[in-house]
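re: ur question from yesterday

yeah so i grabbed the chain u mentioned. its 294 aa long if i counted rite. heres the sequnce exactly as i have it in my notes:
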Amino acid sequence: MYIKDHLSFWIDFLTRTEPLSVPKLNEQDYQRLDHYFKISTPFQLNAGVPVNHVPLIKKTGYAYDWYRIFDRSDNRACLYLFGDIQYTPEQPTFCKSRPLGSLNDNNVLLPLNTVRHLKFMDDRLPFEKKRNNAVWRGAVYKDHRKKFLGSTQKSPFCDVCDTSLHTPKNWLGQSINFLSIEEQLKSKFIFAIEGNDVASNLKWIMHSNSIPVMPRPRFETWACEGLLVAGQHFIEIADDFSNIDDTIEYYLGQPKLLAEINTESKQFISQFTELDKQFALAKIVADRYFAMVV
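ran it thru and got these structure tokens back, copy pasting raw so excuse formatting
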């Protein structure tokens, strides 16, 4: 997080006098609210924590967004988990992420760490003028990312490199494999490979004129990755990365289909670009949560 992000939060936090205004909701908004909060029966909490006891000096990417949703006078008791949550807790708990599946109701999603996960930028390069390749930069620690890296090194279509801490550094202290987002956006395809939970780059890829390439997601956040449809919002590759070349080669020969995927992808992610609205919707999710606590 940059200094400007810290300053932006603290100026707003110390000067804010009006609560979040709730926007007029459309059908898509109501569907999302039901997706974030799935619990339909009242529940009790063991060892709940008052909302305004969440510290602002730990995991600030999460805590800042927490206090964009909640008022600092709010002392209702809740449970929360900050970080990359890969499991379902035993009690209903506010989280940034959850595993996909039918048994994740206790993961109540909020837009947390948005500085990393809801990051967007303008892409003025038309798709047809981009390189006919697929690019990725990221930290390779997890076994599935190691397998992905190994599967792409001899590919004629892929520009994939590890940027983790153990890679050699340039004079600026960056990995010599570093490639800016602006440079990545010169490629037609950009891989979105999950790390601890979701692929944090997926959202800005979907907002661009490039197309995300990835296996089916295993986790989701506020951006509803679990609702994405392969072949409509992204190009699907095998979980073992065995068909990357064949997939890229096939889609390069389908310009009309690529244009449709890019349009659908951008349309889906457009519902998440207005941050104030995300926090207002999150307040509704929170109110639903507290209405169920007995």
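noticed a couple things. Residues 248 and 254 are 10 Å apart (CA to CA). also The radius of gyration is 20 Å.
anyway ttyl
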